[in-house]
């Protein structure tokens, strides 16, 4: 297990590995120490036990040894030692010759226990056999180490069990930590990404359980609120600017560039749908005289009044614009054809019959010459249509002027 996290390791991996490592180290260390202490205590206990058995055996086989009854001594050894944790027993006589000996059938099957017993220093225990205080022999017992094996097996099983449990708890803990640490961070990253990619600044990071992360989220949310506010303000300023850029300052109508933009859009749409559109070109008649006689302010007021009347003559979807000076234009879209456009032009002329009353009490008579062009008959694009309408207006103006001149004569 590496201590240095992999470069691309996720927070989840790092936390999970740290928990598992911690659990494994803690349990292994505690387990090994406990096993060592256990083995030391167990060794003392087993030595005591062996000593007690050796003394008891020395007392039991005393008579058989004195009367040199080997069979009886063998039976006694079998009776006393069967089922005990003893591998071998030897009884020596006064001449230190082996009088009788006994081996466990268990230990004959394998010497692992005895090896382990030797490994932890379980030496053979001996006890003197005496009669009336006089030594007549001795008994030597060898442990089979079964107690050690049992203890080690149980200890290892408990250790493995504890490792499993603490691994499981470590994983659960890492999952909880992940929920508390990684989730808020992931949400923060998700919201930041959404703001960067889609400019969706209405998103907010939910409150985290950990105080520091909650604070981070709150700061982030406050930053988003500020950004959102500024963004909204900018958007509003932009739309005001856009509106201003598309309006004529005097009349409040659309200006030339906005009119041309809308006309291009309408032409594109009409080309796709097969619908018709009409452009009306209007120019005030003898407007210079108005300025000259009544002043520039009166001219402005007349232009505003003409603009309002034009606007009142068309539908909501149509567009009235002041192109500049005393020129106006109207986009009728959709329109049935030339007749419909002419009908609107006539309505406009009717609307101009009423004089405009100035603040000074002076009455000014508005008068406009109108020329029209219909798509697709009179032109396929903006320039062609505007030209056609301009020419038509010019013709109308000429006719008006000559009629006026005739009237004067
Ligand atoms: N009051 C006012 N006058 C303007 C404005 N813009 C242009 N004019 C004036 O409008 C007049 C336009 O005159 P023309 O269109 O050339 O001629 P006209 O007197 O209308 O004569 P015809 O078009 O031939 O009938 C000019 O005298 C300009 O100075 C404006 O915003 N306000």
Automatic annotation (TrEMBL):
Is Membrane set as a keyword in this record?
A: yes
Q: Name one Pfam family in it.
A: GGDEF
Alphabetized, the UniProt keywords read: Membrane, Nucleotidyltransferase, Transferase, Transmembrane, Transmembrane helix
Entry's CDD domains? GGDEF
Q: Which InterPro entries match?
A: CHASE8, DGC-Regulatory_Protein, GGDEF_dom, HAMP_dom, Nucleotide_cyclase, Rev_trsase/Diguanyl_cyclase
Gene Ontology MF annotations: diguanylate cyclase activity
Enzyme Commission (EC) number: 2.7.7.65
Q: Which residues cross the membrane?
A: 23-46, 148-171
Keyword Nucleotidyltransferase attributed: yes
Q: Where is the HAMP domain?
A: 179-232
Q: Do you know which PROSITE patterns this protein is assigned to?
A: GGDEF (PS50887), HAMP (PS50885)
GGDEF domain boundaries: 275-409
Q: What is this protein called?
A: Diguanylate cyclase
Give the organism the record lists: Comamonas guangdongensis
- Source species taxonomy: Bacteria, Pseudomonadati, Pseudomonadota, Betaproteobacteria, Burkholderiales
